[in-house]
Automatic annotation (TrEMBL):
GO BP annotation list: proteolysis
An annotated Gene Ontology molecular function: serine-type endopeptidase activity
Range of residues in the leader sequence: 1-18
Organism of derivation: Phodopus roborovskii
Record InterPro entries: Peptidase_S1_PA, Peptidase_S1_PA_chymotrypsin, Trypsin_dom, TRYPSIN_HIS
PANTHER family: KALLIKREIN-RELATED, MAST CELL PROTEASE 8
Name this protein carries in UniProt: Mcpt8l2 protein
Domain of life, per lineage: Eukaryota
Name of the gene encoding the protein in the UniProt record: Mcpt8l2
Record keywords: Disulfide bond, Signal
Positions of the Peptidase S1 domain: 21-208
GO cellular component, one term: cytoplasm
């Protein structure tokens, strides 16, 4: 097993107090310029939030279960409750994977094309950083019936670091490269969690 970094956008409701990640640490300013905060409305017109990250100037990658109506992206928010020096960008088109299944939570990956290109600024910042470890596939196979090691990653932490719900779609980064997308967690809130394995979807991404 090897250590990776999970980058989390501050996406908690306003009522949440204090740090969003138990035992987590706040990311350094300017350290991860690709983080994105996503807002949208679900089928019941309820406001939802997700994380994401820039993969091109006008394309953000996130989880397919973060699809909905009136999707918008905020860049440059170290704390989403403080709107200074942020870019608010409407989404022109959402492209969820054609084989995404909400029932099985497989192929949970989506691309968002923005209406306007984000400006290049050095102040674009991330939210929270939490050190986690990749676990053996058998661990997640026991917890998630549809877990598929060829397209998903099993990620946990021996010290039981936990992050609150709402940062789905954010990246799982190793040595500066995005390796996974936050996809699902166990109903009890226990780790490990499941991440979409980005490398398995490179051909699909290149076609889009």
């Amino acid at each position: 097993m090897f250590l990776l970094l999970l980058l989390l956008v501050d996406v908690l409701p306003v009522s949440t107090e204090g740090g969003e990640i138990i035992w987590g640490t706040e990311a350094k300013l300017h350290s991860h310029p690709y983080m994105a905060f996503i807002r949208y409305y679900d089928k019941k017109s309820k406001p939802k939030r997700c994380g994401g990250f820039l993969v091109e100037k006008d394309i953000v990658m996130t989880a397919a279960h973060c699809d909905g109506r009136n999707i918008s992206i905020t860049l440059g928010a170290h704390n989403i409750k403080e709107q200074n020096n942020t870019q608010f960008i409407p989404v022109h088109k959402s492209i969820p994977h054609e084989s995404y299944s909400s029932a099985k939570m497989v192929n949970d990956i989506m691309l968002l094309k923005t209406i306007a290109l984000p400006k290049r600024h050095n102040w674009v910042k991330p939210g929270q950083v939490c050190t986690l470890e990749v676990q053996e596939s058998q661990t997640c196979q026991k917890l998630y019936k549809s877990y598929n090691n060829s397209t998903q990653l099993c990620v946990g932490n021996p010290k039981d670091k936990k992050a609150t719900a709402g940062r789905f779609g954010g990246p799982f980064v190793c040595q500066g490269m995005a390796q996974g997308i936050v996809s699902q967690h166990h109903c009890t809130g226990d780790l490990p969690e499941v991440f979409t394995r980005i490398s398995s979807f490179i051909p699909w991404i290149q076609k889009k």
